[in-house]
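Input for the complex:
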Amino acid sequence: MSARVVTVTSGKGGVGKTTVVANLGVALAMRGQRVVTIDADIGLRNLDVMLGLENRIVYDLVDVVEGRCRLRQALVRDKRLQELYLLPAAQTRDKSALRAEDMVRICDELRESFDFLLVDSPAGIEQGFRNAVAPADEVLIVTNPEVAAVRDADRVIGLIEAEGKGPARLIINRLKPELVRRGDMMDTAAVLELLAIDLIGIVPEDETVIVAANTGRPIAFTDHSPAGRAFHDIARRMLGEEVPFAPLKEPGFLERLFRWMRPEGEEQR
Amino acid sequence: MKLLNRLLHRQGPRSGEIARERLRLVLAHDRAHISPGLLEVLKDEIIAVISRHVPIDPEGVQVTYTEGPRVNRLVADIPLRTGRRARREYGPLGLLDAE
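Predicted:
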């Protein structure tokens, strides 16, 4: 048994990479997979707080690389699930503490004992991004249906292909069905046509994601919310299941009619 | 009035469609490393070279980059000044008779 190394990256910051990694980690572990989530964002670690594990960190990635601890000692186990672990990033300012070969070596060492290694890449296309992509068997690109995020995603897709790590698959995050219906947000078809890659998931904008980040309990733990269901769908697709892309829920007819007749910002008559 | 406009859909393209069109261009330029600025430079040099040999209408010259399914192209659209009026101005061989 050898783990699949899946790197999650985006180009632009703030599109939801860390949220995606945390939730896919939870969703895969809930399906009996042995998962390590790896935070490769040296100096700006956040995967620990998204998973609610920030108080349990003893060692980090750079400690492992510099030989201050064994790899196993740096893994933080999530007590809520049988087989979900975090390998935290260091909070040092020295980003050069990590090289691409270190990431490859660490992932190779973990491969035998796990099913999935999910690597949370830093934003940008510099060394940190290269480190995160170096060990990858597969790459997932996260984007939002917005001009800047799609443009940066396209840059990253090109770099992934040049590295021979493609074809990457796309997660469209924070889609707002109502804005799409109104024509004020690009729909899935438009984004896919522009980027010309395969889709693996569409995650609707969902307030419970913010609540989940506040409390450190990823929404995938409870898949009642639209975003939680979307993350579970992605996990199932990663495991080879054919999961249809469900039509996104929109506000009901009466609610829509009401809003249509009295749009926001217009005074009442 | 706003309600009537909404009923008649008199609004032009919505912002989602505008985003898509803008991205189509931006991505094409990003992928080819051809910036709109470079296209302007190419256009000026093409105008200089061609008009040394053939009378053209510099105002009408357009240099565009397009992405095709297999080949991406630079397309230069260069309107010639070879109408009747131009022939009078330039003479039968397209050369300037007299200034």
